Automatic annotation (TrEMBL):
The keyword Transferase applies. The gene is rsmD. This is 16S rRNA (Guanine(966)-N(2))-methyltransferase RsmD. CDD domains: AdoMet_MTases. GO terms for molecular function: 16S rRNA (guanine(966)-N(2))-methyltransferase activity; nucleic acid binding. Keywords: Methyltransferase, Transferase. It comes from Streptococcus halitosis.
Length: 179
């Protein structure tokens, strides 16, 4: 896997072997950014279930100014740390080694872009979005990108957000919420 585009474009991304994380493929990552961008003029990104960190590193590569990555799995944490080092711009990243639920108590918004790819999708996505809305973690122009199995049906509206776009890529479904 590698960074698809932007200032880090072409650089390799480490990923975790096994089934504890499901790294977003280069093809799906590229498609997600074509849906939502593809490039940005600053802003903050939150990657709540970071896995390898690929999505938020790609966002910074494409113009986001700062990313907060959250991951609880110790093996994945080592991969994320190496991937952040690969950018040679570690100051653009904040890495929280904790559960997503706990991280939501500690982070400060607003965030312009949020990635949600939790292991148990539907219920967790709804709870996370409701918690973030309650804590005012969303900017006015926020986009929340949810990656799930294609069989998962997310609600049309969650808290202050509604579905803007939804696409299926192989076994994955990408749902984008906006205000």
């Amino acid at each position: 896997m590698k960074i698809v585009s932007g200032i880090y474009g072409g650089r390799p991304l480490k990923t975790l072997e096994g089934k504890t994380t499901r790294p977003t493929s280069d093809k799906v990552r590229g498609a997600i950014f074509n849906m939502i961008g593809p490039y940005f003029d600053g802003g903050r990104v939150l990657d709540l279930y970071a896995g390898s960190g690929g999505l938020s590193i790609e966002a910074v590569s494409r113009g986001m100014s700062h990313a907060v990555l959250v991951e609880r799995d110790r093996r994945a944490q080592a991969i994320i740390a190496a991937n952040i080092q690969m950018t040679k711009e570690v100051g653009k990243f904040q890495f929280l080694k904790m559960e997503a639920e706990r991280a939501l108590e500690h982070v400060n918004g607003p965030f312009d872009l949020v990635f949600l790819d939790p292991p148990y999708a539907k219920e967790q996505i709804v709870a996370d979005i409701e918690k973030m809305a309650e804590r005012n973690l969303f900017s006015q122009e926020v986009m929340v990108v949810c990656e799930t199995d294609k069989s998962v049906e997310l609600p049309e509206e969650i808290a202050c957000l509604g579905i803007w776009k939804e696409k299926i890529y192989g076994i994955s479904k990408v749902t984008v919420y906006v205000r």
